[in-house]
Design a protein that fits this description.
Elements: E1 4-13, E2 21-31, E3 36-40, H1 47-51, E4 62-67, E5 70-72, H2 76-84, H3 97-102, E6 103-106, H4 119-129, H5 134-147, H6 164-176, E7 182-186, H7 194-209, E8 213-217, H8 221-227, E9 230-235, E10 238-243, H9 245-249, H10 263-273, H11 286-294
The structure holds adenosine-5'-diphosphate (ADP) and magnesium ion.
Residues 47-48, 186 line the site of magnesium ion.
Length: 297
């Protein structure tokens, strides 16, 4: 069994309205435990909609999203079937509080979710909400703040007076303080400078290395290339495929995916276009490319 499964997932906004909009359409794929998955696609392709089915913020209009043993669906036929077969109780299919502890969700501009008067209190909110006692929540919050690189001098500061990157790290600390096994981040580096961006991504990498499954929505193909082990492409509400990042960027028809190609892969294309004959298809980092280029003929 995969950690996460999408089974024919579709979602329609404003279903009963003339403005109805099919934001995602018949999506099927699986994510394995401890994957680091990048979800990419043009603005409006359905990325944010899809990930919100992971913790029941949005319920698929058709099909279902499965996370471990939890099922998320608003599809009446599926609910009826699962209840009839006694696989789930109706109440289990409507209550997502346990699921939300498993799936930590960092939204776009997570700093807007900060609200407490001190950094420490903000990070304690999640664990307290999930039933930790005051003292335990405080210990957990301190541990997570350390993990995101904010030492004790930050604990009693107002989250609102921090830099953009620091605010995001506080928000991430608040999410991981509930020990989620899956962390979902929707464009977490938008608006940060290169340093802030790298800090956030290296932090996500560390959280991944400690055993958390990661799904990150991004427009930044360098992030895909340098951090993810798999990339999933959405286009016009549909799933185009899941592959290794190098496989995606080496595709001859990558234009059809409407993505920005990283400079490294653009350079490989130029080499081919300008008549370089040796096989460079296996070179997916600068060192191996230089190796091939500098070999004797
Ligand atoms: N609350 C909403 N009501 C109606 N349409 C929406 C809503 N949220 C998103 N959409 C539409 O659904 C489509 C997919 O949106 P979204 O999942 O946010 O895409 P992405 O995250 O890839 O940019 C877009 O065309 C968007 O306009
Ligand atoms: Mg989005």
């Amino acid at each position: 069994m995969s950690m996460i499964e999408f089974h024919h997932v579709s979602f329609v906004y404003n279903k009963k309205d003339p403005n109805r909009y099919d934001a995602i359409n018949d999506i099927n794929f699986n994510i394995e435990e401890n994957d680091f998955v990048a979800l990419v696609g043009k603005t409006g392709s359905g990325k944010s909609t899809l990930i919100q089915t992971l913790n029941g913020l949005l319920l698929p209009s058709k099909g279902y999203t499965k996370v471990k043993d939890f099922i998320v669906t608003g599809d009446k036929e599926i609910i009826k079937k699962l209840v009839k077969e006694k696989k789930y109780k109706k109440t289990e299919l409507k209550n997502f509080s346990k699921l939300r502890k498993e799936v930590g969700m960092v939204f776009q501009f997570p700093e807007y979710q900060l609200f407490s008067e001190t950094v420490l209190k903000d990070v304690m909110f999640g664990p307290k909400n999930f039933g930790f006692k005051e003292k335990e929540a405080e210990e957990k919050a301190k541990e997570c703040l350390k993990k995101v690189g904010l030492d004790a001098s930050y604990f009693n500061r107002s989250p609102f007076e921090l830099s953009g990157g620091e605010k995001r790290r506080v928000a991430i600390a608040g999410i991981i303080a509930s020990n989620p096994s899956i962390l979902v981040l929707d464009e977490p580096t938008v608006g940060l400078d290169p340093n802030g961006r790298k800090e956030i991504l290296d932090l996500v990498k560390k959280i991944h290395q400690e055993g958390t499954t990661i799904i990150i929505v991004t427009h930044d193909m360098e992030t895909v290339m340098n951090y993810a082990n798999k990339v999933i492409v959405l286009k016009d509400s549909k799933y185009l495929g899941m592959m290794k990042p190098s496989e995606l960027f080496n595709k001859d028809d990558i234009e059809t995916y409407s993505l920005e190609v990283p400079p490294f892969y653009k350079f490989k294309r130029y080499l081919k276009e300008y008549g370089y004959k040796k096989d460079i298809s296996e070179a997916n980092d600068l060192a191996s490319l230089i190796n091939i280029l500098s070999e004797e003929k």
